[in-house]
Queue: 3 jobs
Job 1
Amino acid sequence: MSDHNPERTIMVQPGGAPLTYTILVHGFTAAVALAGRADRPLVRFDLTLTVTHPGPGFPDDIAAVMSYEDIVEDLRRLCAEADVPGADYLADRAASLCLSHDKVRQVRVDVAVPAATREGMASGAGLTRARHGRDGTL
């Protein structure tokens, strides 16, 4: 049984908010072609996703739960882009990609870009985005 089965109901918490669980994708790194840099630095992504719980008695079936592999594949495609403007762009796009998955309710994205020189400072960006239901709940 998958989430697309009409018999599946979403479990809710007191007050009506959908029951969720957390997926962590921390320490994902990939070489990124940043605009204005000759090197391809290893950029680090840390993601915390709040995902809709599939309900009681869900089968041990990847279709019933959110797979972090889908998110990792999205990040790989994002990092393969050319002339990436910077950490803000990467954080924004990563959040949008995560929220494109129906099961993802909220995502926290932190991106760290190492300095171009040994003496320089690393840069980064972080943001939180959420999908809100019609009633304003996550």
Job 2
Amino acid sequence: MGTQEKVLEEVLEKSVDQGNNEIILYNDDVNTFDHVIETLVYTCEHTPLQAEQCALLVHYTGKCTVKTGTYKDLEPRCSKLLQAGLSAEIV
């Protein structure tokens, strides 16, 4: 195995270990800004300002990445968002 292949393999392993998954929150016509903000603060550990900014982005652009991390960390958070009536998915 050449040096270049070994370095590439190490880079690929590191990117897999870091877990670059995201929770995407989608806009809907049902939930209030207050509900979305409170849910993001509780579920994603956002500050109130972060949650408000995400809520505005979702409202005006249709979606927003609200949390990144490993799938293992994001799965229960996404489930809580869905249980709260929000539209979200892990990508």
Job 3
Amino acid sequence: MRKLKTSRQPEILDAALAIADERGLDALSMRAVAERVGVTPMALYGYFRNKGELLDALVGRLLAGLTPSEAAGTWQERLSEIAQATRRLAREHRAVFPLLLFRASVTPDGVRVVDLIYQALLDAGVPEADVPRIERLVSTFVLGFAISEVNGRFSSASDETRTRRGAELPAHRRLAGQLAVDDWDAEFAADLADLMRIIRPV
């Protein structure tokens, strides 16, 4: 077994992410990560005191990829880019993505993404006292949509179930032709547009 150098933290997180992607979060342990990296489990404790700290760092590793490009100038463009990146992240790391719902953003990378959303909301003219609440509203929608999509809640099968189970109910009968969704990308974009109007009404 080899010793870890200070620069090996990204390697540890990459290994943890790979294990969770391949075998699910339940398979993620300090021992499993140590085996993947090729060190003793004790060597990891110089980086993370426990699995909780490892999971927090993994959340930061995921959120680091959500930073908007410099080309995204307006507050709407920045929020939209973060939202779309979050949706892609859910598709790429569906086993790990639920961590973003279960654990707070406490690492520098995680806090930076939240700060970028705060700044976009401030630029939109949201009163300072309302910014944290609106950030939670936006984040909860985006995370909820993304996790619903990758776990099958949004699918043609769910459309059929919804239509079938409510066939005898008046509102379901009235909306029978509207319940199926043909384009989830379009729905997500429309939902974001609705949120933008809530944030700063036209």
